[in-house]
Write a structure and sequence with these properties.
The protein has 328 residues and is mainly alpha-helical. It has helices at 4-7, 9-15, 27-37, 39-57, 93-129, 131-146, 149-157, 162-167, 170-181, 184-197, 201-208, 213-221, 226-249, 261-268, 276-304, 313-327, and strands spanning 17-20, 23-26. It has one domain (4-327): MetI-like fold (Orthogonal Bundle), CATH 1.10.3720. The protein is built from 16 helices and 2 strands. Helix 13 runs parallel beside helix 14 and helix 13 (226-249) packs antiparallel against helix 15.
C-alpha cells in the first residue's frame, strides 16, 4: 500500500531534515534561522513586540488615564508631569496613545488572523468539493466582493444598525465589519492553489483510502499553502490597522469614547500647527506599527523561499569547502 505521508509534501516538510556535514537541521529550524539572519526582519519583530508590550503595560507607568482631565494643563506640550503633553480637553496624551495603540493592534491581530483562517477554510472547501458546491460558494464570494465596504462600515458604525450599535463598542463592531470584507481576495487565491493540489497524487491517494474530507482539507491542503497563509497574516494585520486608521480618520470607524490611533490622528489634524504633538505622536506610532509589519513580511517571504540565499552555518561551511576544492 502506498505510504501517504511519503507522497505529501507538507508531511514530508514536517518530518524532513537537511543534513550538512553530519548536522541534521529540521525545516522549521531552517526557516527560523533564515528569518533571524535577516536583520531588517528582526528589527521589525522587535519594534512590533515593543509596541505591543507598550500598549498593554504602558499604562502602569503613569498616574493618568484616558478619562481623567487635568484642568491646570489643557493643551500643554510634553513635560515632566505629562510625558507626551495633553489634549485640548486636558487628557494625558500618553494614556490616550497607550489605549489607542492597544485598540489598533487588537483590531489588526483579530482581523488578520481570523480572516486568513476563514479564507483558508472557504477556499480549500471550494477546491475540494468543486462542481455545484464550488459554483454556489464562488457566487457568494463574488457577491460579497461587489458589496461597497465603505458604505457598510458607515451604516454599521454611524447608528444604522441601531441594535448592534447600542450593544457593542465601536471597535468590536468595526472588527466584525472588517472581517466580512477582508478574507475574500485571499479565499480566491487559495481556491486556485488548492485546485492544483487536488490533482496531486497524495490528495488522490487520501481520497481513495476513504479519509474524511475535513481531514484531507486540514491535513493535506492547508499545510501545503502554509507559507502563503503566514504571509497573508502579516499583510492582513497591516491592512486592518490601516483600514481602522482610515475609517476612524474620516469619522466612520472608532467612535468616542473609544480611542484608537485613527481617532487621535483625525482629532489632531485640524490643530497640527497649534498642537503638533497631538498629531505627530499617534502618527509616528502608526508608522512604526505598519513599518515593522512590512519588515517582518519581507523577512518571512525570504525565509519561506526555498531558493533563499540565507543558508545555515553548516551549509555555509560546505559551500566554502567546495569553493576551496575548486580553486585548489
Amino acid at each position: 500500500m502506498t505510504n501517504l505521508n511519503a507522497l505529501d509534501p507538507a508531511a514530508v516538510a514536517e518530518e524532513a531534515a537537511i543534513e550538512h556535514d553530519g548536522v541534521v537541521i529540521a525545516k522549521s529550524r531552517i526557516i527560523l534561522r533564515r528569518f533571524l539572519r535577516n536583520k531588517t526582519a528582526v528589527a521589525g519583530l522587535v519594534i512590533f513586540v515593543a509596541l505591543t508590550l507598550f500598549s498593554f503595560v504602558g499604562g502602569y507607568f503613569t498616574s493618568w488615564d484616558k478619562e481623567t482631565i487635568d484642568p491646570f494643563n489643557i493643551g500643554m506640550g510634553p513635560s515632566a508631569e505629562h510625558l507626551l503633553g495633553t489634549s485640548q480637553a486636558g487628557i494625558d496624551l500618553y494614556s490616550l496613545t497607550v489605549e489607542g495603540t492597544r485598540i489598533s493592534i487588537l483590531i489588526g491581530l483579530v482581523v488578520g488572523l481570523v480572516s486568513v483562517l476563514i479564507a483558508a477554510v472557504y477556499g480549500c472547501t471550494m477546491a475540494y468539493f468543486g462542481g455545484k458546491v464550488d459554483k454556489v460558494m464562488l457566487f457568494i464570494l463574488e457577491a460579497l466582493i461587489m458589496m461597497p465596504a465603505l458604505l457598510v462600515v458607515a451604516v454599521a458604525t454611524s447608528g444604522g444598525g441601531s441594535g448592534l450599535k447600542s450593544n457593542l463598542p465601536s471597535w468590536l463592531l468595526l472588527i466584525i465589519v472588517l472581517l466580512i470584507f477582508s478574507w475574500m481576495g485571499t479565499a480566491r487565491l487559495i481556491r486556485s492553489l488548492s485546485m492544483s493540489l487536488m490533482q496531486r497524487d497524495f490528495v488522490k491517494a487520501a481520497q481513495y483510502m476513504g479519509i474524511p474530507p475535513r481531514r484531507i482539507v486540514w491535513r493535506h491542503l492547508v499545510p501545503n499553502i502554509g507559507s502563503l497563509l503566514v504571509l497573508d497574516v502579516t499583510r492582513g494585520v497591516t491592512g486592518a490597522i490601516l483600514a481602522e486608521v482610515a475609517f476612524s480618520f474620516i469619522g466612520i470607524g472608532i467612535k468616542v469614547p473609544d480611542v484608537s490611533l485613527g481617532v487621535l490622528i483625525g482629532q489632531a489634524t485640524s490643530q497640527v500647527s497649534t498642537f503638533p504633538w497631538m498629531f505627530w505622536v499617534p502618527l509616528t506610532v502608526m508608522f512604526l506599527l505598519t513599518g515593522s509589519l512590512a519588515m517582518m513580511n519581507d523577512g518571512l517571504r525570504d525565509a519561506f523561499d526555498p531558493h533563499s540565499s540565507s543558508i545555515g552555518s553548516a551549509a555555509g561551511r560546505k559551500a566554502k569547502k567546495s569553493a576551496k576544492k575548486k580553486t585548489s
